């Protein structure tokens, strides 16, 4: 308690001293802080000389020092007990480094100064003099001659860095005083008590020169043998007895690399924004803002540190640019920048853009230009009786019948000599015919007769040159006729000549992703906006609201499906884990991981579980996990069958041993549906490879039944190693969740080989032919019936070994010609064999990434992390795994990268090195030891707390400072509050005592001789009460005597009382009593006792009277003692409770 009291000094705030005033501190024996004020020579004190710290602050205000009448120019000092650095090498304590503000006064030759503490020295003090692990034990301060042992206290620097430090305060013994009243303490720094040691001198000793003339020195006065010597604090320059501040910044001695701030007696360095002061407190170091957030700093993309600043860039994210906030990256809409030179449509995607073509066009090798597809050259999609005519973006099938509207002058012979139009000769024999009624040759319509090398031939008439204005846009000449076509964006009218604009913006016609605006001959796509939903949500009818999709309603793959916002997750039964697809479950082989099974010896993996087995000579214990040694049971000393064998064994009487029972030989014992394996004392069941063991470990079930009931497959399942997967019959495929089989529509997906019509049915398809066609033997190819007739007529050459063709055989001009399907090329060597065309080699860059050649075709594929573009499968775009997979499987942050992704963690978490996806909280409390007292780890962070009686530092929440409870409402103490490290104590003045609440001090006058009260003593409490005042009181039945102390008994019987009969006075009370024959009721009322009822004293008749009773007898009787006796004329015989009469001899008793 001595140390706790000595540590509670000066909790009342110290107030600034007036000019010329001095003070000294002292601690009373009860721990109360007291100040003694005095004045410099030439001044006298006005006010109270002593001030004591109470619960309400100082009991007296600070006095003033006024000038004596004969002096007019005293010196004024504001004193403080702080450490300084002396002229010597070691730290000493004195009053140096004051902030001197000199103000010249009129007609005064001396300076009035005001002192301030040295901040640099104070900032170096600490609390390391407290013995580690203790609360109140300090490193002992040096002993000072003629001084008491030092008392220890804690002080707080009122300026930055607000450090706390310990001080050792001395007091001189009686008859001694401090040589320097201001030098009464030492200071703690780095576990050592530093400062100039205080010195106690006898009061009779004369103070030397400085004590007498020291006021002439502005700062420090030193005695010399004959006089005094004035010097200045560090940072000041002496000019006579005055001290002038040195401006280190102006003189260039500060050596600050950036900003220098001069202060009285010192200076400090500062840095511009983006820099931080180095450890030398002079140089400035650049703040690397990019170090945090995995070297991204505050930037989303690249962070480049600059001197005093930083800049963000999005150069590492292709297709993105820096947003207006100069920190985040936003997508560049390349389609808004010149349409990316796309000839038609531009499709913007995050980080890039693609060119797309409308139907009927294909994308050129430059990936920007759309060219018209000539459908007539590629596949000739028109029927045989029509001609295919290519138009921009499409094609038309035109009948071969001559168009009468085209040739206005039917049969008119055009001048043969005109050759201003193109002549087309034809070798077809049916074009030239002979008029049966004339010897001249006549040509069919659209041709003219012309002699060529002496031979008459029909040549085509070029109607487009002959009639140039026949078509509004374009005229296309054909043998024997012509037709009109329109420019792109137009279509031909019904008259076959004029063109009209096509409204491409009609729904289903254009390929705009946003809004479409029709133009004359064309259209344009305009950017707009639309609401979209993230994966796992569906757009509502208002086109604005997204609703979560309950995938569990459709997911038939999960063993147990749990819907989550925007996604779902599957849960597997015990013994199974999720497959990589996140839906199906696969068996966990507990036997591979020793941590997952408890078998002491052999482990046998089962579907969804495992079992343990033992080597020969061992058996499973009761836990079915541990193998124990089999000790043969012998019963050599047993008689008969009294030997008891363990379970699974039987007793052999002849051998006196216990033998294992082979349960597998008895079906009633093992109950295995298929295979039974005997073990020592037990057995286990197994299944054939095509059956599955159920959870009872006895029953084997067909895979189909197991697949449907246990796995959830709609058809069947297979087991590959430890993985169970659903399978489908031919013609079916697994739908999204890999459990339900759905019919494959071979007709829609192009998986059929039908030459014409394909009709799908469950599990397959059939080929059908149009009119006038029949199905060939392969049930896939449709043959023209007319062509069949030709084949039959011409020896059916194509029907014999397919004409020698490996693919298509066509009969032309009495000859079979071999041809190939699309994607094949006829061999130039034999003209019969079709070789697959390797489009991947011949058509360079046909696929964006991977090209896979297939028989007759090719397919494009993408590398891992990429997916084919829906509208252009040859283009691969990056898959955002963070969106496709639920946050990429990352527990916190998913970062998408081109072709891949990786998981990241927020601050306070660390990525698990095992799975690379889970963020584990960093326990800063264990790894970093960041808190001064108590550290509480929280997810992603931590928080520090302090022990009771401490508070967190306002500058660093990790540090704890002592809470000065006395600063807040005096700690609740009624009088003196004394702060100690970690708590506080309430103290009372002399004659006062602390109550049970340990806060309130009362002067209880009843404690001594009961306050001279004869009975009860009560202290008078309250703010206006006199300390020690009491008042006496008496118990009931007493009155307080006129002396105010003595209680006298009240004789209630002499005054009013409530007794019915007799009143008996007692000390402090009284009692009532009743006369005989009465009973006291309610303490005061007397009630008559009915003796006739309670005692029954009479033999016959009892009559009660107030306070008594009497007995009587009926007529003919008389009372004799306690009984009634009758008047018998002869003899009377007494009996218990009565009597009887009897007669003498010769008489008879007559009853009356």
UniProtKB/TrEMBL annotation:
List GO BP terms, alphabetically.
endocytosis
Keywords from UniProt, A to Z, are: Disulfide bond, EGF-like domain, Endocytosis, Glycoprotein, Membrane, Receptor, Repeat, Secreted, Signal, Sushi, Transmembrane, Transmembrane helix
Which molecular-function annotation in GO is an example for this chain?
calcium ion binding
For whether the record's keyword set contains Protease, the answer is: no
Q: Where in the cell is it found?
A: Membrane; Secreted
**Database matches in Pfam families:** cEGF (PF12662), EGF_CA (PF07645), FXa_inhibition (PF14670)
Q: Which cysteines are joined by disulfide bonds?
A: 925-935, 1053-1063, 1092-1102
Q: Which GO terms describe its cellular component?
A: extracellular region; membrane
Question: What membrane topology term does the record carry?
Answer: Single-pass type I membrane protein
Know the name of this protein? Fibrillin-2
Enumerate the spans annotated as EGF-like domain: 372-410, 460-500, 548-586, 587-628, 878-920, 921-961, 1049-1084, 1088-1125
Q: Where is the Sushi domain?
A: 10-67
Q: Which InterPro entries match?
A: cEGF (IPR026823), ECM_structural_protein (IPR050751), EGF (IPR000742), EGF-like_Ca-bd_dom (IPR001881), EGF-type_Asp/Asn_hydroxyl_site (IPR000152), EGF_Ca-bd_CS (IPR018097), Growth_fac_rcpt_cys_sf (IPR009030), NOTCH1_EGF-like (IPR049883)
